[in-house]
Design a protein that fits this description.
14 helices, transferase activity, single chain, eight-stranded mixed sheet, globular, transferase
Length: 414
């Protein structure tokens, strides 16, 4: 059950009255007359074959206020791209699929790579970046929401609540972050947020004199949530990481570019579940292990930009401080689970904390070994300055892919 408590330095919008989604959608339809709205869906092809995405599409078919849906499709060959176009064709809203592995977009990407203006690695960050570029190229919406395609508990109320703060003309928010309880199958989830991010931020507060920035991050109830909404002008100057640090990187960019009274977070779901990553204790290149290293590096990089100084001694002390705080949190979460009749495996929780503590050192070592690393994707403003026709060419490439497939379908049906 939501409450009205405001913690931290950004506004929290609660779910106090369980307002009917139809009521909110009527308002959003009115807002759309003066502030058109869009949605970005970064997707792997494999997600088309899950239970989550078909339900998401069924729910989106009922949404009456969207002017544009942009789907970024990763890891798809030509046949799979064709299937994806058919899969998404049931959407009644204007929509477009970006075939990121297709020859046209790969050629454009290669050209930008040669200029150092494109993402250096595959992943969600790259997918989202190209989708944002396409949204800017089309210039059809003024507010845009983003959410993942693996949400098992999705209903359209999530989207309505997520986009409302940046769509309402009476609000002055440029950015909104979604939050929710990570409870599913009778247990607490969200280990990386609960057992890494929050205790690591609290530990950094003890060691680094950048309390304003850390207080800001600590204000978010679910910093790793993959659900955002923006006013469209935000996208021009946004520089995001291409790795698992995407969510932390976006929060940092918003703090850098806007006053905190232009930012907010909103309760978007009572129940939220999606696919779960393995802990990957013996593999730093996958699962929660890689995620924890990327997130820690993202935090260190952003604090260094703020003027924080790190060395090997700092990271050793940070590991010890984090470890103690995280263990105390396990006790807190165990008690919270018990009073709510939920299960929590303390042994697995401590295994995760031990892994995250080791990975703080690994992330620190990587940060010190490569201080010139530039993991951030250039802003679209920078790309436009270097390639003034990039939006026209990106839009043309996406539309050509779609038209080519449509022509093939017509020949088959003739």
């Amino acid at each position: 059950m939501g409450d009205f408590y405001q913690n931290g330095i950004i506004t929290t919008l609660h779910n106090l009255s369980r307002r009917p989604v139809e009521d909110m959608e009527e308002e959003l339809k009115q807002f759309s007359q003066v502030r058109p709205m869009g949605l970005v869906l970064p997707s792997l092809y494999s997600e088309l074959e899950t239970k989550a995405l078909p339900n998401i599409i069924d729910e989106l078919c009922k949404v009456p206020y969207l002017s544009q849906i942009v789907i970024g499709l990763d890891r798809a060959d030509e046949q799979q791209y064709h299937h994806a176009l058919e899969f998404f064709s049931k959407l009644p809203q204007p929509h477009q699929v970006l075939w990121n592995d297709g020859p046209r977009l790969k050629a454009l990407d290669k050209e930008l790579q040669e200029l150092g203006l494109a993402p250096e690695q595959m992943g969600k960050g790259r997918n989202v970046w190209y989708c944002f570029g396409y949204v800017l190229a089309c210039n059809q919406v003024e507010s845009i929401a983003l959410h993942d395609c693996d949400i098992l508990t999705y209903d359209r109320n999530l989207l309505a609540r997520l986009i409302y703060p940046v769509a309402n003309p009476k609000f002055n928010y440029e950015f909104c972050k979604g939050f929710y309880s990570r409870i599913a199958n009778g247990t607490l989830n969200g280990r990386v947020s609960r057992l890494l991010v929050t205790p690591l931020i609290r530990a950094l507060k003890k060691l680094v004199d950048k309390s304003d920035y850390l207080d800001y991050l600590d204000s978010y109830r679910y910093a790793l949530a993959g659900e955002f909404s923006f006013r469209i002008d935000v996208l021009n100057d946004l520089r995001i990481p291409s790795d698992w640090g995407l969510e932390i990187g976006v929060l940092a960019e918003m703090k850098r570019n806007y006053a905190t009274n232009r930012l907010c977070q909103v309760d978007i779901a009572d129940v939220y579940d999606h696919k779960h990553q393995d802990l990957s204790q013996h593999d730093d290149c996958g699962g929660l292990s890689k995620m924890s290293i990327d997130i820690a590096k993202a935090l260190f990089r952003k604090l260094a930009i703020q003027g924080a100084v790190f060395n090997n001694g700092t990271f050793r002390t940070l590991k010890a401080t984090y470890y103690r705080i995280a263990l105390d949190f396990i006790e807190t979460y165990r008690n919270d689970a018990m009073i709510n009749g939920l299960e929590l495996d303390v042994h697995k929780e401590e295994q995760a904390v031990e892994l995250f503590a080791e990975n703080i050192i690994k992330a620190g070592n990587k940060f010190l070994e490569d201080p010139m690393e530039t993991p951030f994707i250039p802003s679209w403003n920078r790309v436009i300055n270097a390639k003034p026709d990039i939006f026209e060419r990106l839009k043309a490439a996406v539309e050509a892919d779609n038209q080519e497939f449509s022509a093939q379908l017509q020949k088959k049906s003739a």
